[in-house]
Design a protein that fits this description.
The complex is a heterotrimer of chains A (about 140), B (about 550) and C (about 100). By secondary structure, chain A is of the alpha/beta class. Chain A has helices at about 20-25, 65-75, 90-95, 110-120, 135-140, and strands at about 5, 20, 30-35, 50-55, 80-85, 100-105. Chain A has a six-stranded mixed beta sheet. In chain A, strand 5 (about 80-85), helix 3 and strand 6 (about 100-105) form a beta-alpha-beta unit. With about 100 residues, chain C is of the alpha+beta class. Chain C has one domain (about 1-95). Chain C has helices spanning about 35-45, 70-75, 95, and strands spanning about 1-5, 15, 20-25, 50-60, 65. The chains are: A alpha/beta (about 140), B alpha+beta (about 550), C alpha+beta (about 100).
Chain lengths: ~140, ~550, ~100
């Protein structure tokens, strides 16, 4: 069992994750696992009952999961978003920016490396849903006075 | 020119530290080559035929004198006293040590440069028109939009593991000097009937093994939605671009397989959603960037006459300059294609000379052209003779812009681990042949482009004459293509027939040139004649 | 013969397995025979070589000649810059690799 690295205060959802198709069909499912080829938008009508989204990265170079996570966050999903699989320390900051707040890598990550990676870039150029103020906003103070 | 503020500098500095750390982890064995490779590629570091190669980004091809001098110093200190300017307006160093990579990036960061995203499956350096801000025919300077895109695409969290690499080009005139429609996304800044500026989006062009000309998917995106629309284009690609076959992973295949109409429909749906997300930088940011690209202090009433009394100078001035929007000025093109030379290579000393000329005569600015030459964008006509004399003295005064000797050539099998055949020696032989037979000037505009493999870094599909090197049972063999163009009349060349040996291809190019000379009508370029008479007369002469 | 090549991890230089270690000179290359895979695995793990692979070559009167032009160019240097090859004083060397 891979180690879970989590940046949330609530309890870890205990429900087993089911496939996207199964989740859509089962009215009582609370956790889902998104594979790279799945359409995350299928979950949008069910965000209210979602507690846990696992996004699988079979290989770290397949970046579809970044879009899946961002789409769900943009539609208001606020539960746990967990990156699972071939998750390496060099991707973790981008994953966090796309809305991931939990990581379950195949190979455990050293806590110190994770901390360093997440703190590496002082700012960001893009607006995402992670709450960071983009550089253009820091320059002009348009949205936050 | 754009100048970094504290934020831009902090981002680049952070990347230097990050990459230094990644290199050290590789040297220490904490990263395998398989893990390290995508990380080093995302920072432009390749393992090539003879050593590591570092590709340094030159955003939209623009350099200050100080930056060009820093590139020269890196060539001296960390490489073998030269560099290679590329078809993506970048520079490559061929003999880099992994243990020096961090120090080189630190040197670059001191002059607001970097190697971020110069390789890897991410958004690459944004290219643009090398005459931006100088050409009379542009509706506006395209570079502020390229800079806006540069910032948006830098460290983009969602688009750093795309199916394949992704290249933008931005132009702002009907004349296309940046091969815009042969990019993943080509943007043309246009003015609508109401007089407002906007962006026409061309998506799904490219060369490589399946060359395609990008269709226009939207005629006019308002400028305050430029980033949002780009994001929508990329998100559809990231989600649905093919990942099962790297040769079918570029966006051109997605657009082709879905059809431009369906791709556009999906982009528009994503765009509508993203407009609600507030991801577009405010107009004030574009306005801030624009201030860096205002006209330099041109001298009003500068003399508009050239002293043409030196005939060698007159030949060069006629051939290697481009009209300027400001009376009394010209853009001067420095050819990196001396007869028999290596296309795009410049020594450290030559780079320093170009830096000095930029500082002394061109408002401290020079540009890299995708044809692997350098431009001094704003030269007073009164200074042109002095500029030429200095270039001539350093082997940089070859008067061959857009002629048969001005060959684009990829590094080929002399340097590149992907190549199947050498490109540079073929370019050298052809340039020598036409210098010796004196036909170069007679032929006029004839764009010749050579790639050493199907990846087409040498743009062979888009050459009036293109050459593709292939491996035929362990022997180099060269296919000939005719009729390509990277300009606004974009077209893809067609293969003439069976390939040629290294000697044979040089003869074949001369044969094709002779067909043109025999058949051309008034004012026709090689390309025009080919388009009028078709392939048959050329085939007849080559194989008949 | 079956010879092994790769690049030095830190410098990137092209190197050849000489039977005991790695040499910059193609002519030092030793026949790895059936041990190629084992040597590659061991040497790569020890980071004494980066991206190693085995190739066919033959020993000729003048040295070791890889079967493929790519490896012959790797063994010498860029044919268009004889001054940067391993044999800058030998103008014929460039022609011999083609």
């Amino acid at each position: 069992m891979a180690e879970l690295l989590r940046f949330r205060d609530d309890a870890v959802p205990a429900e087993p994750a089911v496939t996207v198709d199964a989740f859509v069909e089962q009215s009582n499912a609370l956790a889902v696992r998104i594979e790279p080829g799945d359409d995350a938008r299928k979950l949008i009508p069910f965000l209210d009952r979602l507690r846990l989204v696992e996004v699988n990265f079979p290989v770290f170079g397949d970046g579809r999961g970044y879009s899946a996570a961002r789409i769900l966050r943009e539609h208001g999903y606020s539960g746990e978003m967990r990156a699972v699989g071939d998750v390496l320390v060099d991707q973790i900051a981008y994953l966090q920016r796309c809305g991931f707040d939990a990581f379950e890598p195949d190979e455990p990550l050293a806590a110190e490396d994770v901390e360093k990676a997440l703190a590496r870039f002082p700012q960001a150029y893009q607006q995402t849903t992670d709450g960071r103020i983009p550089i253009w906003d820091l320059r002009h103070g348009t949205a936050h006075g | 020119m754009y100048q970094y503020d504290q934020y831009d500098q902090a981002m680049v500095d952070a990347r230097v530290a990050e990459f230094r750390d990644q290199c050290q982890r590789r040297i220490d064995g904490k990263l395998t080559e398989e893990q390290f490779k995508p990380l080093r590629l995302m920072n432009g570091l390749y393992l090539q035929l003879h050593a590591y190669m570092l590709r340094v980004a030159i955003p939209y091809g623009t350099l200050s004198g100080r930056q060009m001098r820093a590139l020269a110093d890196i060539a001296d200190k960390f490489d073998r006293k030269y560099g290679h300017f590329t078809t993506r307006q970048n520079i490559q160093y061929n003999w880099i040590k992994l243990e020096d990579a961090g120090d080189i990036l630190a040197e670059l960061a001191k002059v607001e440069m970097h190697a971020i995203q110069t390789s890897g499956n991410c958004i690459r350096n944004i290219s643009s028109d090398h005459f931006a801000g100088a050409a009379a025919d542009e509706v506006t300077d395209p570079r502020p939009y390229a800079e806006l895109l540069r910032q948006w695409s830098s460290f983009h969290p969602e688009f750093s593991y795309l199916p394949r690499k992704f290249k933008f080009a931005v132009i702002a005139s009907d004349t296309d000097r940046a091969a815009m429609r042969l990019h993943d996304i080509g943007i043309q800044i246009v003015r609508n009937e109401a007089g407002e500026l906007g962006a026409a989006f061309y998506v799904g062009g490219g060369m490589g093994r399946t060359p395609m000309i990008a269709p226009c998917i939207r005629q006019f995106v308002p400028l305050d939605q430029l980033i949002t629309y780009s994001e929508a284009c990329l998100r559809v690609y990231n989600r649905y671009g093919r990942r099962d076959n790297k040769y079918k992973a570029r966006i051109k295949i997605l657009v082709h397989e879905l059809g431009a109409e369906e791709y556009t429909r999906q982009v528009e749906a994503e765009f509508a959603h993203l407009l609600e997300q507030g991801i577009e930088p405010p107009f004030a940011e574009l306005a801030r960037i624009r201030t860096f690209f205002e006209d330099p202090a041109f001298e009003a009433g500068a003399a508009d006459e050239l002293d043409r009394s030196d005939p060698d100078f007159a030949v060069w001035a006629d051939r290697n300059t481009h009209p300027h929007k400001q009376a009394g000025y010209l853009s001067a093109v420095i050819s990196l294609k001396p007869v028999g030379g290596i296309p795009g290579d410049a020594t450290a000393d030559q780079m320093r000379l170009m830096a000095q000329l930029a500082e002394d005569y061109s408002f401290d600015e020079c540009r890299v052209i995708h044809t692997q030459n350098i431009v001094l964008p704003h030269v007073r006509k009164a200074d042109l003779y002095a500029v030429w004399q200095k270039l001539e003295a350093s082997g940089l005064g070859t008067p061959n812009l857009d002629q048969v000797g001005d060959i684009i050539a990829c590094p080929g099998l002399d340097y590149c681990s992907l190549a199947n055949a050498r490109s540079i020696p073929v370019a050298q032989r052809i340039s020598e042949r036409f210098a010796a037979n004196g036909k170069g000037e007679t032929l006029g505009e004839l764009k010749l482009k050579i790639s050493g493999c199907i990846n087409a870094c040498g743009h062979h599909h888009a050459g009036h004459i293109g050459i593709l090197g292939v491996d035929k049972k362990g022997v180099e063999n060269y296919q000939l293509l005719l009729g390509g163009s990277e300009a606004e009349d974009t077209s893809l060349g067609k293969i003439t027939g069976p390939g040629f040996s290294e000697d044979g291809i040089v003869d074949a190019v001369e044969t094709a040139a002779d067909v043109y000379l025999a058949q051309r009508q008034d004012g026709e370029r090689f390309l025009d004649t080919y388009r009028r008479i078709g392939m048959e007369p050329f085939k007849e002469a080559l194989y008949g | 013969m079956n010879i092994l090549t790769g690049n030095d991890l830190k410098t990137g230089a092209v190197i050849w397995w000489d039977g005991a270690g790695w040499s910059l000179h193609l002519d030092d290359a030793a026949d790895a025979g059936d041990d190629a895979a084992a040597i590659i695995a061991r040497e790569e793990a020890a980071r004494r070589v980066n991206a190693p692979y085995a190739i066919n070559a033959e020993r000729t009167g003048s040295g070791v000649r890889p079967a493929h032009i790519k490896d012959r160019i790797r063994g010498l240097g860029p044919t268009v810059r004889p001054d940067l090859t391993l044999k800058p004083e030998d103008p014929q060397a460039v022609h011999e690799v083609i």
